[in-house]
Amino acid sequence: MKTIFKAALVLTLAFACTAAYAADTLNGAGASFPYPVYSAWSFEYNKVTGVQFNYQSVGSGGGQRQITERTVDFGASDDPLMPDKLQKDKLLQFPAVIGGVVPVANLEAVKPGELKLDSDTLCKMFLGDIKRWDDEKIKKMNPGLKLPAADVTVVYRSDGSGTTAIFTNYLAQVCPAWKEKVGAGKAVKFPVGIGGKGNEGVANYVKRTRNSIGYVEFAYAKQNKLNYTQLKNKAGNFVEPGFESFEDAAETGDFDAKKDFFLWLTNAPGNKSWPVAGATFILLAKEKVDSNKKVVKFFDWSFKNGDNKAKELVYVPLPKGLKEKVRGYWKANGLQ
Questions:
Q1: Alpha-carbon distance 298 to 294, whole Å?
Q2: Cα–Cα distance between 165 and 148 in angstroms, integer?
Q3: pLDDT at residue 3, as a whole number
Q4: In the chain, how many domains are there?
Q5: Is residue 273 a part of any domain in this protein?
Q6: What CATH number does residue 184 fall under?
Q7: Which residues of the chain fall below pLDDT 70?
Q8: What domain range includes position 105?
Q9: Contact, 222 vs 201, CB < 8 A?
């Protein structure tokens, strides 16, 4: 799996079909947030079926654009599209897996999970209002840590990104100044910092840049051994990112098939909830029934056989009831 995670930005997983199976290929593009788990699922699915799974990790904006232009079999986005947008572009949408976006920092004397931040401090760092690591607000929350007397370097996503959409959706909920000055979306104008392309790009920048802070999907933080932070959640508790805190956030979600599952999971109210959680979604072109059935077959197989691998990579599989809602949605649209 390490070689999979360290692949280049545009990643293609292609495996030779055995003589027992007819050659078949699924082409997708979009969010880098779920790339690690889609890679793992596709590897196993190919061994069972011989189907090749080519997925380009180009960001949610690219995934939305490519499925709208009908250049791929499916798009992938962490930024859910509203029902009216889906109707306009003749698209279907369903969730595939749930994960978390985490702040990550490169601080020499700080280990993963040691640094504590609250929403106000995190917001002010990304606004550029808190400029140094030895700021009193940070020191007060972290009395036992040796914080550097150094400037904060912010790292953000430079491409249209569902990870950014989740992160900025959270900041806009908890920080009025962020909502007013920056807003939320796949691509916003960050007031300060440097941009990296994809979760991979941000992870690499943070890893190379001392005293930096950025945000990535948790699997990238783990794989790159980045120092993820604790965050104070809506219930007022400092929590670490991980399967339990992501699952706690996921349990609050009321996904509705009639709304094409449009839902944000940020700032969830649970005592143990990670506040920057989110689902990642698959987008299909309504008229491409034959290829859609192949895509659905892959995700149905993954729902049945991929939960352990998802958990291993610190993603939360869809709850059983939500999987059944998704299957009902597929059937209602003639895909299963």
A1: 6
A2: 30
A3: 46
A4: 2
A5: no
A6: 3.40.190.10
A7: 1-23
A8: 101-249
A9: no
In this predicted model, what pLDDT tens digit does every residue of 118-162 receive, in sequence order? 999 999 999 999 999 999 999 999 998 999 999 999 999 998 889
SS (H, E, C) 65-112: HHHHCCCCCEEEECCCCCHHHHHHHCEEEEEEEEEEEEEEECCCCCCC
CB within 8 A of 17, min separation 6: which ones? 23, 24, 50, 51, 52
Indicate if 158 and 295 belong to the same structural domain: no
Residue with tokens 């506040």: 275
In the block, residue with structure tokens 């995934």:
63
Summarised one tens digit per residue, pLDDT across range 67-77 is 999 999 999 99
Are 214 and 180 part of one and the same domain?
A: yes
- Residue with token string 């939960």: 307
Is 80 in the same domain as 136?
no
Q: What secondary structure does DSSP assign to 208-275, as a single string?
A: HSTTEEEEEEHHHHHHTT-EEPEEE-TTS-EE--SHHHHHHHHTT----GGGTT----TT--STT--T
Tokens of 177: 């100044």
